[in-house]
Every structure is written in structure tokens, then in C-alpha cells.
Amino acid sequence: MRGMIFFAGGMTLALAAGWLAFPRVLYQAKRQPLEFNHKLHAGTKVGAKCVDCHSLNAEGRFSGVPALAQCSGCHVAALTESADEKKLIEQYVTPNREIPWLVYSRQPENVYFSHASHIKAAGLACERCHGAHGASEKLRPYEENRISGYSRDIWGPSIARISFTKGVRPGMKMDDCENCHAEKKVATGCMACHK
Questions:
Q1: Alpha carbons 43 and 70: distance in angstroms, whole number
Q2: How far apart are CA 31 and CA 143, in angstroms?
Q3: pLDDT band per the 50, 70, 90 thresholds, residue 164
Q4: What is the mean pLDDT of residues 139-153?
Q5: Which of 22, 51, 118, 195 has the greatest number of C-beta atoms within 10 Å?
Q6: How far are the Cα atoms of 105, 118, 159, 184, 189 from residue 101, in angstroms, in the given order?
């Protein structure tokens, strides 16, 4: 009986280490170069639309994070007293240096993802995969996997791959894409995504 108690205790400790401690050690938090207030920019004060900064290029490929030119159009001189706006102007706009944003959704090199077919043809909202960034006043923490170098957003917020938020995918792994395609009854093939 005593052996069973030790075994159960050891198993509980091992599971706790695997489910609670390992994810904390696996991911390291990194700061974005600047804070960005999506709510301010997309709100009535500025009135920018998502596509003003996050757009598709002529070939239908997603342009990703906005280039400095899109920021410097408005921020040549300070519009507010914000420390981040001052940093933007001094460190990036004035020296004409691109902002080294950490990309939450960077996919592996062997993956091709067409935003055009998902946004235009399928009519999916950006929030389906990326969450409701447009309503945020601060960027959420960027957590990088120490082994793979990818953001936690690829795996999802929980190592158990459980999402308690309705309408938001738990991650951006291949099975998330396959599940969405199955829900929408869209055929998939390896070469459509893997080039």
C-alpha cells in the first residue's frame, strides 16, 4: 500500500511538472519594440481600418506587419505625449529604420498560407485565427518557444490545446487548419500548404 501512495505521489508530481512547470520553462517572454494601441488607431479618433496597415499586396499575399512608411505618414512629429510615440519617432522614423516587430503568427519555412483565399474567397474574419487585436489597447505578451523559436500563438495558449474562448482557434498548427477545413467542408491536400 505504501508503494502505491509513493507511486501516486510521484505520478502527480511528474504530471504537475509536465503540465504546469514545463510550459513556463519552455517559453520566454520578449518585449515588442513599442507598445501599440489598436483601439486608438482603429477607433473614432483616428479611424484607421485593419486593411490600412495590414493589407494584401497585388499578388494576393499578405504584407504582414506594416512598414515604417505607413507609420511615418502620421508620426513625423509627435501627436501626443506618449513615451512610445517619442521612441517611434526618435529610434525609427527619424533614422528611417524599420521597426523590428516580433511576429506572433510566423509559420515554418515549409508552410505557405494564402491570406487572400481565406479572407476574400472564404470570407473568414481575421479574428478567427488571430483573436480580437483591433479592440486591444496594448499588445499582448510575445512568448517565444526556446526550442523552436516560434511564438506561443502557433501552439496555442494552453499546452493541453484546450480553448475556453468561443470563436477563437486555440492555435495555428496544422490540425487547427485541418479542423477548420473539415468544419467548412473544404478539401485539403498537402501541396496546397506545403511548398
A1: 17
A2: 9
A3: low
A4: 89
A5: 118
A6: 12, 24, 25, 33, 32
